[in-house]
Amino acid sequence: MNVLITGANRGIGFELARQYARDGASVLACCRSPQAADGLKALAGEAKGRVSIHAMDVADENSIRAAAGKIGEQAIDILINNAGISGGKNQSLDNIDTADWLQAFQVMSIGPFRVVQAFRENLRRGENPKIVTLTSQIGASTWGSGGIYVYASAKAAVNRTMQSLARDLKDEATVVLVHPGWVRTDMGGANADISPEESAAGIRKLVAGLTPADTGKFYKWNGDIHPW
């Protein structure tokens, strides 16, 4: 099984790479700066060839295309859009940075779409291919608070984008969105509910059980359906 993961150098992405490699999958671990990804390099060294590291900035279309060119025609069974950013400190009604807002859309809304475009042929070569995009409950219309405009709108946009892709790719791949939980990562903070290990294990169990009938669904990390 071949798994491509964006943002694989830290947090949930790193833990997904670690767990998939541990269980025998071949992991294409993508991140912006491989030379600075010490943990990922150590993982690749321990994984006996099961982890390869690829430079990819999902906010840069040329970077995505370059990574696709280097990966070549290799089949991809699971593509996980994990790369994300917080969107900056200023996300309130009275104080917002529109440059950060645009960057958040490049990374978390447009980026996942471009990654799917770039690796569509690789997915066609995969076995029961699956496209999994990690989103957030904050991007759901059911989220019950205001503020966090940058992050929330970028995640809401990718939710809608993946719904459209699920329809357009219904004969090619299973496309789902997953809220990974509130996770103790650099972004989630030390007081979050669950560890990266718990989140990644739940996501992997969910992904393993997906069928084409599940395409277009929005899940929680534990397999429950998330309300839109």
Query: What's the helical proportion of residues?
Result: 25-40%
Helices and strands, in order, run as EHEHEHEHHEHEHE
CATH superfamily descriptor = NAD(P)-binding Rossmann-like Domain
Average pLDDT over all residues:
95
Euclidean distance between termini CA atoms: 31 Å
Please identify, by name, the CATH architecture: 3-Layer(aba) Sandwich
Q: How many β-strand stretches?
A: 7
Write out the strand line-up for the largest beta sheet, numbering strands in chain order: 3-2-1-4-5-6-7
| Class computed from helices, strands and strand pairing | alpha/beta
- Summarize the biggest pleated sheet: 7 strands, parallel
C-alpha geometry: globular
Quaternary structure type: single chain
Descriptive overview:
45% of the residues are buried. The chain is globular, with a radius of gyration of 16 Å. The protein has helices at residues 11-22, 38-46, 61-71, 98-118, 120-124, 149-168, 196-208; strands at 2-6, 26-31, 51-55, 78-81, 130-134, 174-179, 218-220. The chain has 228 residues and is α/β, with parallel strands linked by helices. The longest helix has 21 residues, at 98-118. The chain has a 7-stranded parallel sheet, with helices on both faces. It is built from 7 helices and 7 strands, in the order E-H-E-H-E-H-E-H-H-E-H-E-H-E. The chain starts with a strand and ends in an 8-residue tail after the last strand. It has one domain (2-220): NAD(P)-binding Rossmann-like Domain (Rossmann fold), CATH 3.40.50.720.
